[in-house]
Amino acid sequence: MSVRIEKSGRVTTIILSRQEVRNAIDPEHADALQEAFLAFDRDQCADVAVLWGEGGAFCAGADLKSLTARGIATEENRSTHRSLEFPSGGEPVPRGPLGPTRLTLGKPVIAAVEGPAVAGGMELALWADCRVMAQDAYFGVYCRRWGVPLSDGGTVRLPRIVGRGRALEIIMTGRKVPAAECLAIGLCESVVATGHARAAAEQMAQHIASFPQVCLRADRRSIYLQHGLPELTALQQEWENCAGIFRAEGAAGVARFAAGAGRHGAAHSS
């Protein structure tokens, strides 16, 4: 299967496996990837997802050869292309060209990046909450050379992560952005030895999954909801977002701490 799911405890790893095209994505695989993440979000036994590309490449973006062979820009296929456009009447937003990039999930996703994550593949990694990169991994808006615009959130998420000026430079030049630079500018959260990105991302995922999840998801949600709001409005929204969380999880946690658990930053130690 070109998109498959593997589970370990409360961590779900979603794997792209189209090694012959460096895990580039065509419409069928975009559908499969979207459904895999929707299934993860529905799964009450899963808390954190890892997205990984098999075979030494994260994702080379859209499968342009496949799209060309299908005549995606021809008159008879324009209706299919239009189906990915945003509706005007409040209907559900369609999937992104590469799949889940327009989803707002209630649980964390970590991208485990080996090799190239370019064009739409970079956008797919930016959609994740965090990115773990191998030493030889890299990002890049390589679609710049073909006149193909970013349409999976790259122009929205990249400046929010690294700032407008840096994002403009990366997007307009289309240059390679190696892992070491990504770490320096905040475009990834960790750089590990080549071949170890998946294991490191899954280790991070297991750590995140070890905490009380109602509180963790509320804090994660608050970070996304506050973007662009005035500070006082954001603070009010933070308070409203966490209402009831203390009763749901916090009171029990405080009682465990008072009894000696979780000292010195440990999740479950006594």
Give an account of the 3D structure.
The protein has 270 residues and is of the alpha/beta class. It has helices at 27-42, 64-69, 78-82, 120-127, 154-162, 164-173, 179-185, 197-209, 213-225, 231-242, 245-258; strands at residues 3-8, 11-16, 48-53, 109-113, 116-118, 130-134, 138-140, 176-178, 190-192. Strands 1-2-3-4-6-9 form a 6-stranded mixed sheet, sandwiched between helices. Strands 5-7-8 form a 3-stranded mixed sheet. Helix 5 crosses helix 6 and helix 9 (213-225) packs antiparallel against helix 10 (231-242). The longest helix has 16 residues, at 27-42.
| Strand/helix succession | EEHEHHEEHEEHHEHEHHHH
Give the helix level as a range of percent.
Answer: 40-55%
The CATH homologous superfamily name of the largest domain equals 2-enoyl-CoA Hydratase, Chain A, domain 1
Number of domains: 2
Radius of gyration: 20 Å
Q: How would you characterize the largest beta sheet?
A: 6 strands, mixed
Reading off the top of the CATH hierarchy, the class of the largest domain is best stated as: Alpha Beta
What is the strand tally?
A: 9
Mean pLDDT score, rounded?
89
**Percent of residues in beta strands:** 5-15%
